[in-house]
Design a protein that fits this description.
Strand content of chain B: under 5%
Number of strands of chain B: 0
Oligomer: heterodimer
Shape of chain A: globular
Distance between the termini of chain A: 54 Å
Shape of chain B: globular
Structural class of chain A: alpha/beta
Number of strands of chain A: 14
Order of helices and strands of chain B: HHHHHHHHHHH
Largest interface: A-B, 33 and 28 residues
Largest sheet of chain B: none
Largest sheet of chain A: 6 strands, mixed
Strand order of the largest sheet of chain A: 6-7-8-3-9-10
Number of helices of chain A: 11
Chain lengths: ~325, ~260
């Protein structure tokens, strides 16, 4: 469990983290979502005892980050934004060095190293020097390294930054697999909306060092007006208006030739709509976390690369 | 029992840090080649070049190349040990240092592991030079080899500490190289590696007295060639004091070094 209490980091002219308080529960996958420079990494560095806060305090696994920093370090794993393994060593050797640094007992050292390599799918390449690894493999090796001492808490700082879309999806699969196989509290920072949405139980949206919204991805998205369903039908508008009686329908509009419904949970409720309406086609869109961020700050989070199609999920029902 | 585990964990950490340095050294062949090439150049070009025209009475009837041989060993240690400090800057640049800093390892342990790595490099280079020494006809005994190794370990501990201390304060490699070239050349030239120290002008002889390498050159010349200007015990004692002092300085510098 992680408790953050009025944590502040001030540099000469800049307040990177501004009076931040937050509790993160055991076995939670918590996402800190925000644009570059929002203070995400600074929070992680303070929690990992690499950086001293200007004021405020925090505890990780019950250990104070200032008074018990060595115990904090023993109980956490961390994957940095920039891979930090030694290029000239093999994947296996990097893990071995860290197993020693974390005092993993000799009798289980080999097993831990091999299990970690297996978990991230690097067993085949374990005797290759890291300089021969791809970007995605390096990130996965970092994860294996973060897990070598079986920490309770794992920090993932922008785990897919700079990876191409297919490597990112592979990375997500490995993170999800890891969560399934191990009991872990994960704090993940990202500026990718869909990453936070896909992986996290709970998200804190951070901007200019402050948490400006906190909740499950669904809660955050419900701050926006709900899902949008568009359909085209030959039925009369008066008949369509009957849909208002369904409890998940919030609003009905007729725009051009289309019917536009604001509904809760479109994905589950479209079949219900289809029972009442004979449609030519139907499509829906869910609000994204980007919409949430836009609503809260009036700005969008700039994506660094082309996205892989998670942003919009349109489904077409064709009944002909 | 638990203290036994703590001790073995502690040595495990140092071992791991050393192992990493050692493997990197073995895999970066250019490091080994470059650090051996320069001393050989001095030994053969300067050694033979000056040797053919120098007739110093104080050389004790030993030819110049043999006279500078112990000094050239020290030179290779001076350069490689002090420049080893740049690897702490590389570690920071490549973020490896961050991954060590975030592990439950004390700064003193990190310093010790790194220093042992640097000392190992010096020892490997010295071994190569000793083989070259045998080829040019230096008479070695098992005892003189062990004593040489001991002096080299002391000198390389002191100078690796010095290099790492400088490295811990620097963020740029260019800056490090600038500063270090102001350190290594005086260390080398003032050590008496290339000339006898007994007829120097007063001001120069003061400078040579401050130079820790002076004592290693003098010690090695006694061990290998049987000639020297100070008692061997005094040389060793002063080297030990320098080693302890610079080791302490390095540990303290690593403690205050920022993690990021």
């Amino acid at each position: 469990m992680i408790k953050i209490h009025h944590l502040t980091k001030r540099y000469e002219k800049l307040t990177a983290v501004d009076d931040l308080s937050l509790d993160i529960q055991d076995n939670e996958i918590f996402g800190l979502l925000g644009p570059n420079g929002a203070g995400k990494t600074t929070v992680i560095h303070m929690l990992a005892t690499l950086l001293k806060p200007t004021s405020g305090s925090a505890s990780v696994n019950g250990f104070d980050i200032l008074k018990d920093s060595a115990k904090v370090r023993s109980s956490i794993g961390i994957v940095f934004q920039v891979p930090s393994s030694d290029d000239l060593l093999t994947g296996y050797e990097n893990l071995k060095v860290h197993a020693f640094l974390y005092g993993v007992p000799a009798e289980i050292r080999e097993k831990r190293i091999n299990d970690a390599l297996e978990l991230v799918g690097l067993t085949e390449r374990k005797n290759d020097q890291v300089k021969k690894y791809s970007g995605g493999m390096r990130r996965r090796l970092e994860i294996a390294r973060g897990l070598i001492h079986e920490p309770n808490v794992l920090f993932l700082d922008e785990p897919t930054l700079g990876l191409d879309p297919s490597s990112r999806e592979t990375m997500w699969e490995y993170i999800q697999k890891m969560v399934k196989e191990r009991k872990l509290t994960i704090i993940l920072t990202t500026h990718y909306m869909e990453e936070a949405d896909l992986l996290c139980n709970r998200i804190g949206i951070i901007d200019r060092g402050k948490i400006i919204a906190l909740g499950t991805p669904r809660e955050l998205k419900s701050k926006i007006s709900g899902d949008t369903v568009r359909l085209k039908t030959k039925m009369q508008n008066a008949d369509i208006a009957q849909l208002k009686n369904l409890d998940f329908v919030r609003k009905i509009e007729f725009i051009d030739e289309q019917v536009v419904l604001s509904v809760d949970d479109a994905r589950r409720n479209i079949p219900e709509i289809l029972k009442h309406v004979e449609v030519e086609y139907v499509e829906y869109a869910t609000p994204t976390l980007n919409d949430v961020f836009l609503k809260l700050t009036g700005r969008t989070i700039k994506e660094q690369q082309a996205e892989g199609g998670f942003m919009e999920r349109y489904v077409q029902y064709d009944r002909n | 029992m638990s203290s036994m585990i703590e001790i073995s964990t502690y040595f495990g950490k140092i071992y791991a840090l050393w192992l990493r340095e050692f493997k990197v050294y073995l895999r970066e062949k250019s490091r080994l080649v470059a650090s051996t090439f320069t001393p050989l150049l001095w030994l053969f070009v300067i050694g033979n070049g000056f040797g053919s025209s120098t007739t110093l009475t104080s050389l004790h009837a030993i030819d110049y190349q043999k006279f500078i041989f112990p000094g050239i060993i020290c030179m290779s240690v001076i350069f490689s040990a002090v420049f080893f400090g740049s690897y702490i800057i590389w570690d920071r640049k490549f973020d490896f240092l961050k991954s060590v800093m975030v592990a439950p390892v004390s700064r003193g342990t990190i310093f010790t592991g790194k220093t042992l790595g640097g000392m190992t490099n010096s020892l490997i280079q010295t071994t190569i030079l000793l083989v070259v020494g045998v080829i040019i006809g230096i008479p070695f005994t098992p005892l003189s080899i062990v004593e040489t190794a001991a002096v080299i370990l002391l000198l390389s501990f002191a100078l690796t500490s010095l290099g790492l201390t400088i490295g811990s304060y620097m963020t740029s490699l260019e800056g490090f190289q600038m500063i270090v070239s102001f350190v290594v050349f005086p260390l080398f030239f003032l050590s008496g590696a290339l000339f006898p120290l007994d007829k120097l002008p007063e001001w120069l002889s003061v400078l040579t007295t401050i130079d820790p390498a002076t004592y290693s050159v003098d010690a090695l010349r006694q061990i290998i060639l049987g000639i020297g200007s100070k008692p061997l015990g005094i040389d060793i004692l002063i080297l030990v004091l320098y080693t302890a002092g610079l080791g302490l300085l390095g540990t303290l510098s690593f403690r205050r070094m920022k993690a990021i």
